[in-house]
Amino acid sequence: MPIVESKYKGPPFYYFNKHAETIIPSLMRKVDVSYTREQIDTPDNDFLNVDWVINGHRRLLVISHGLEGGSDRHYVTALAKLFSSNGWDIAAWNNRTCNGEMNKTIKLYHHAASYDIRTVVNHALETQGYDEVCLAGISMGGGQTLRFMGQGEEFPLPKQVKKAVAISVPCYLPHSVETLYDKSNKLYEQRFLKKLIVKIKAKAQQFSEINIEGIDDIRNLEEFDNRYSAPLNDFESAKAFYEFCNPYPFMQNIDRPTLIINALNDPLLKGKCYPFELAETNSNIFLETPKRGGHVGFALWNSVYTYSEKRAFEFLNKS
User: Fold this and answer.
1) Residue 183, Cβ neighbours under 10 Å: how many?
2) What is d(CA 216, CA 245) in angstroms, rounded to the nearest whole number?
3) Closest residue by Cα to residue 50 from 120, 106, 110
4) What confidence score (pLDDT) does residue 1 get?
5) Pairing, β 258-261 against β 161-167
6) Which pLDDT score, from 0 to 100, does residue 2 have?
7) CA–CA dist 202, 313 (Å, integer)
8) CA 268, CA 247: separation in Å to the nearest integer?
9) For residue 317, what pLDDT is reported?
10) Triad 162, 166, 170: Cα angle to 5°
């Protein structure tokens, strides 16, 4: 029963609630790291931008960012700095349209884009020949990572892939989406929505069949997903799209040690996003649920790194 008792005691006193724990790091935190960018091809004639830290190590950490994020986000650069300073190379990849130019195909990115993680991992092994590959995914990137780790029967994992960590991850996407309907979470929904609308407008310049008439009148993510995310990815509705992108059905198949760190006060998680039953039945899923932490928070007093980042380092380095 790998349900882990968390050692996280909570953030400094001025992080007074779950929203402060979520928003303050997002706005104020900055961790610098020096990347080298490589653009790699995908099997469907598109491309991915991968930001590397290569120091000649034999271990690689592949980092997957959250919704409307990128390799430049603080939670990615902090992991990159921590691991690259301690014996690891880094591949921080950017989802299509994120942190760079528009991708070439009509499809954007989504929570189920584990196929792009597979492209990054395979490329890294072919070009750098790593002995060990581990993965770290944050929020949406955590969902992509869990899906990747659980697709071994359909897409066998390379033997070099050893472990994974998922932080603040919507393990059950439909339940996570429901949290955005809460009035207290309107700020998060509108932030995502504004960024996604900008991207659809840019995508419409590439593909005339995308109709953006009235796009600025869209008021919530469900409406946006019904109009754009679902049809652009060949789904009839937002609901069908969320069900497809849900990593939960794949998690029972995870056969390599995988740590999930989800705070119980995360404003964007509820219900089966805390997969206690799976952790009780799958010895490879280690579930840690601190009482506090917010969404991608886990701040520590007088520390460059958060609790979740230090915990990820501990877990992935443990033999």
Assistant:
1) 6
2) 26
3) 120
4) 54
5) parallel
6) 85
7) 38
8) 16
9) 97
10) 140
For the purposes of burial, counting CB atoms within 10 Å of the CB of 147, is it exposed (0-12), middle (13-18) or buried (19 or more)? buried
Which of 176, 164, 162 is CA-nearest to residue 63?
164
How far is residue 41's CA from residue 45's CA, in Å, rounded to a whole number? 7
Predicted confidence at residue 100, as pLDDT, reads: 81
Nearest CA-CA partner of 262 in 300, 280, 288 = 288
Between CA 144 and CA 133 the distance in angstroms is: 16
19 within 8 A of 184, measured Cβ to Cβ: yes
Distance CA 131, CA 25 (A): 34
* Whether 295 contacts 17, CB under 8 Å: no
Residue 79 has phi, psi (to 5 degrees) of: -60, -40
Question: What is the token pair recorded at 7?
Answer: 């050692």
Which mean pLDDT values do the consecutive 10-residue runs of the chain (319 residues) have? Answer: 90 95 95 98 97 97 98 98 98 94 93 98 98 98 98 95 98 97 94 95 96 96 95 94 97 97 98 96 97 98 97 95
CA–CA separation, 254 vs 62, rounded Å? 17
Structure tokens at 265: 């006060």
Fill in the amino acid letter for 306. Answer: T
d(CA 233, CA 221): 16
Q: What six digits make up the tokens of 298?
A: 């886990």
Q: Name the packing angle between helices 18-28 and 74-84 (round to 10°).
A: 70
pLDDT of residue 99: 86
Our CA dihedral for 307, 308, 312, 314, rounded to 10 degrees, sits at 20
Provide the angle, in degrees to the nearest 10, between the axes of the packed helices 114-128 and 140-149. Answer: 70
CB 134 within 8 A of CB 101: no
Structure-block tokens of residue 45: 């004639």
| Pairing mode, strands 59-64 and 3-4 | unpaired
Determine the straight-line distance between the first and last CA of the chain, rounded to whole angstroms: 19
